[in-house]
Known about the structure:
Blueprint: H1 2-23, E1 26-32, H2 40-50, E2 52-58, H3 62-71, E3 80-85, H4 89-95, E4 98-99, E5 122-134, H5 135-140, E6 161-164, H6 170-183, H7 187-196, E7 200-202, H8 205-212, H9 214-217, E8 224-228, H10 231-237, E9 248-251, E10 258-267, H11 273-284, H12 286-296, E11 299-300, H13 309-314, H14 326-344
Parallel strand pairs: 1-2, 1-3, 6-7, 6-8
Antiparallel strand pairs: 3-10, 4-10, 5-8, 5-9, 5-10, 5-11
Amino acid sequence: MKKRIALLSSVFLLLAACSSQAGEPQTLTIMTHDSFAVSEEVIKSFEDENNAKVVFLQSGDAGAVLNRAILTREAPLADLLFGVDNTFLSRALEADIFESYESPALADIDDSFKLDPTHRATPIDHGDVCINYDKAYFAENNLPVPQSLEDLTKPEYAGLLVVENPATSSTGLAFLLASIAHFEDSYLDFWSALRENNVVVVDGWETAYRTNFSASSGHGLQPMVVSYGTSPAAEVVFAEKPLDDAPTASILGPDACFRQIEFAGILKGSQQRALAEKFVDFMLGERFQEDVPLQMFVYPVNPDAALPDEFVKYAQAPGEPATLAPEEIAANRDRWIQEWTDVVLK
């Protein structure tokens, strides 16, 4: 009898321990850039389904995030990293900070987004850095909208374009890469011509769009700005008063926009490998993917994810976006930026 009671006591203690463990959520820490955003209810659905607590560690812009992950790779601060794009992808892979994981959901993703055959970096979203223009300015001044990069150097557009410095802005770097993809070895001739045409250079997107761009600030002097193909949709969504149409649009000529793809990767040393894999799968699922557009104003990579009406009506995607291989960018980025600096800011 005593043995039976002891056995039952052991069973109850074991069940209680298991119950206690099941009730304690596992913490998944995700390092992101400062522009990352997702609806609370979307994250809560993942937490509820997996008995988890998701913590986001915002760490600056995309370049700063990667630098932090590389510097702390011996004692990683997070389980997962989101926000490395194709301009920094090769650097991330060379630093060997990610575990390989091929999500089953990748089977439905277009091959053009899969830039890492080792599956250490999983594509999550994409967008296009484009030149936005102020519709009203061009209409009021009876000025045709430029249709190509070459058009921007024409005298009628002197002083009408503001760009971001590629040494201090990822948006500016993307536009520099678009010019390199289009003009190849003669890209500096294009920038020299822009300089002669009084192109305005500022440090970052916030200043370019909020201060210099006439359609956004209301008093800016430049009716063209390097921004995103989704910016017209954002203008409608965040308008103080309802709008019937977007006040801006994008120049979508061949190579005028640069295609950016953002990736997620499981960091080596993660203590939550299985949970991190589930979150990668979750990020590729329709619920997360359909939340992406109005949170970060980028496109989902999942073709089954429905786009919000604002994107369908107002966001613009180029038919022929500029692209460069990540390894080519990695090998030449610093040189290209220095050459640009010598020509444009001398």
